[in-house]
Amino acid sequence: MKNRRTIPEDRLRQRVREYAARMRDGDDPVEFWAAFCGEVLAGAAEPGPADRPEADADCPPDPKTSRLHTLFLSLRTPVLLLNADFEVEVMNPAAVELTGARDLEAWSRGDHAPVPLAELAPWLEAALEAEGLSAAGGDACRLDVPVSQRYGERHFNVAVSLTADFSDRHDGYAVVLDDITARVEGERELARERNRVAHYLDVVGSMVFTLDAAGKVDMVNRTACRVLGYAQEELLDRDWVDVMVPASHRDEIRDCLYLVLSGQVEEEDERTFQVTTREGFKRMVQWQGQVLTTEGGLPVGMLLSGTDITEQRAIEEALAEKELWLRSTFVALGEAVLILTPQMSILDANPAAETMFQMAQADLQGKPVADLHVSAGHYDDFLARSTAAFEAGEQAMFELPLKRRKGEIFPADQSVSLIKGDDGSTLGVVNVIRDISDRKHAEAELKRSEEKFRRIFETIEEGYMVTDLEGTVLMVNPATCRLLQYDESELVGRNIDNLYKVAGERQTFREALQARGAIRGLQMTARRKDGTPIVIEANAHQVLNNQDEPVAMEGTFRDITRRIEAEKVLRESEKQYRAFFENNHAIMLLTDPKSERIIDANPAAGDFYGYPLEVMRTMNLSQIIALDRDEMFSEMRRSMDEGRTYFILRHRLASGEIRDVEVYSGPIMVQGAQRLYSVIHDVTKRIELEQEMKLLATTDALTGASNRHQFFTLGGVEVQRAKRYDLPLTVIMLDIDYFKSINDTYGHAAGDQVLKALSRAVSKLLRAPDVFGRLGGEEFAAILPQTGIEEGAEVAERLRSTLAGLAVAVGDDTVTFTVSMGVTQVRAGDRTVEEVLNRADEALYRAKRMGRNRVVRD
């Protein structure tokens, strides 16, 4: 070992003051010890007696140097002194223990020969070389070095400083190793804990944010990013209120956060408000907040936890709205509704039921519903039909007469359905009753009116057929020809057996009809003219003569092939359904029948409504249906009355345009949940055409007034209503005086102008419920409902005066004219509108004979 120089006391004190000043300035203590020990152990001072061998025996050791040596030996931090050849010259005991060297006493006294660092601590030598330190030279540095030992891994913070001789020339390195194993393990444990917390926050179902004191996002979990559509980096270090909260609520929420963070108000346990997703959608979120503080209690931020309750809130609002609507509908419904207990006693009744049965609510409540039936046999029939439908999981619908309070019997159309609890138990029964007296009367009138029958016969969409008992076709309607692709002449006189695809179905049909007298909803397979099979749904009954003997069979049917095929497709695998659903050109929707939420829509629906599919899947049917609840209920009732399998509705497109559509709907099970599958057809043009055709069929082409057929149709309804409810009704007949002379003098074109002017003037003076029509030529008539003869005569006089003052411009001429009128009213003995018109006509001709331009009452 080389002889070392000692440091004079004044130089030592100066170095101590310098290192103390560096410690006060914040220098690292490990670097301090490395530098200080390096200088002390290197003996970087003037040459002293220690350099002279002969002085060893004569000069006692310097006490200050001994104290420093003692300090060096007592250090618990390993310290090594390397010479310029990267050999270890001096180690303190802590370093000897670390390196596993022998001869502790020799190392402590400094009597040990230099040993290459690679032999004592190869791990340290490798780490220093990686930092560019070796026998070839290098600068001071600092690095962390892990060491694998028998009892585990240790970590050292290694500080290396250069040592110099008295002339400040570099002659080695001082290496100080600070054991930081505990700190590294603590940091690792802290990292593991942070990872566990981060993992928990990522898998928790709530959205979690931490905000700093300025309201900026410090941390956000994956749930929040997924729900709100943001990437984590898009939210970090951004103002939470500006990003999340809609503009209209930002000031309110920001003030709230400020008050909580500043301690001016207590922390709110819970607060619900809307936030905005990245795509701009509003989500209702229930938030909980917790102020984050330092150990001293100073607020440094806030922890926010939010639960998305958008769907829950929408469901609650929809349920509340539905409950209110149902109650309002129950009270305002025109049909009688009885709520029955499972024992068939009346629990509740709406006002329509009170009116129908002529009993107050108090009289109906608690009353057995059997008391409303005509007889015990009728009540047993009611129970049997209801029970059979309930067991089949269906709603019972049938006609059964009932009686009013005073014993009056009336025909009733009844619908009976169960009220089920969430556990499937029966809570009660709903009995909807409609008085069909008017309908029965109308049916009787229909049988006596060939014209009405023919119109219905030719225009209904369902096929209609009459055969004799042997199956020979006697009559078919146009719809039958269209469905089976035959001409009428090819069907009439032909045996119906040829139309069955399956031979045994005809025999089954006849046996069922003979046994029950009528059948409904029977499905069979028919064959078209070209041999194509179609599935039909048939309703049929026997035609009886006056002796109640069957003489023929008649019935209706409709083609349900497409519906059957659709049902088969929907029962296929999800892949097949999806391909059919998405590639079909027809507009298709899949909805939740309870919430009316759109579960799925095919591309054709997106193209038709003008919404992206992902938007449609978040919408509700109420956003596209342009009808209110009352209009929807009326259409459902019309569909049921008409036996239709579809609804005619009005849908609103994204552009705001309203379109008429036909909606064919049916239930379907999708992944164990019941859904409603709907196919939608745009029929706007067809509806417009039908309305135009109806207008042409009911309106006089020249004057715009009702034509003769429409006038008698509407007039007959008003006369019957007036008689049924004992209401007054006045009829006016009017005829233009000397109309032939107008045509002869000015031409028929002038006559047409006069007729038009008369129609316009009369229409302006009459009320909306009044019926005005042209009966032929220059003869017109008006029906004034709920108008007595005196008031009717006054109306006629106003009409006469107004028409007498008209001046019709015809070319360069001006044509004036007068009218004569006959007025009468409905009397007790009148049976038809024709009888009333005949009296008005007689009064009209009396006015003509009395000089014209006057009103005569009958």
From TrEMBL:
<protein>
    <submittedName>
        <fullName>PAS domain S-box protein</fullName>
    </submittedName>
</protein>
<dbReference type="InterPro" id="IPR013767">
    <property type="entry name" value="PAS_fold"/>
</dbReference>
<dbReference type="InterPro" id="IPR000160">
    <property type="entry name" value="GGDEF_dom"/>
</dbReference>
<feature type="domain" description="GGDEF">
    <location>
        <begin position="727"/>
        <end position="858"/>
    </location>
</feature>
<dbReference type="InterPro" id="IPR052155">
    <property type="entry name" value="Biofilm_reg_signaling"/>
</dbReference>
<dbReference type="InterPro" id="IPR035965">
    <property type="entry name" value="PAS-like_dom_sf"/>
</dbReference>
<dbReference type="InterPro" id="IPR013656">
    <property type="entry name" value="PAS_4"/>
</dbReference>
<dbReference type="InterPro" id="IPR043128">
    <property type="entry name" value="Rev_trsase/Diguanyl_cyclase"/>
</dbReference>
<dbReference type="Pfam" id="PF00989">
    <property type="entry name" value="PAS"/>
</dbReference>
<feature type="domain" description="PAS">
    <location>
        <begin position="449"/>
        <end position="502"/>
    </location>
</feature>
<dbReference type="InterPro" id="IPR001610">
    <property type="entry name" value="PAC"/>
</dbReference>
<feature type="domain" description="PAC">
    <location>
        <begin position="396"/>
        <end position="448"/>
    </location>
</feature>
<dbReference type="Pfam" id="PF00990">
    <property type="entry name" value="GGDEF"/>
</dbReference>
<dbReference type="Pfam" id="PF13426">
    <property type="entry name" value="PAS_9"/>
</dbReference>
<feature type="domain" description="PAS">
    <location>
        <begin position="193"/>
        <end position="264"/>
    </location>
</feature>
<dbReference type="Pfam" id="PF08448">
    <property type="entry name" value="PAS_4"/>
</dbReference>
<dbReference type="Pfam" id="PF13188">
    <property type="entry name" value="PAS_8"/>
</dbReference>
<dbReference type="InterPro" id="IPR029787">
    <property type="entry name" value="Nucleotide_cyclase"/>
</dbReference>
<feature type="domain" description="PAC">
    <location>
        <begin position="269"/>
        <end position="321"/>
    </location>
</feature>
<dbReference type="InterPro" id="IPR000014">
    <property type="entry name" value="PAS"/>
</dbReference>
<dbReference type="InterPro" id="IPR000700">
    <property type="entry name" value="PAS-assoc_C"/>
</dbReference>
<feature type="domain" description="PAC">
    <location>
        <begin position="520"/>
        <end position="572"/>
    </location>
</feature>
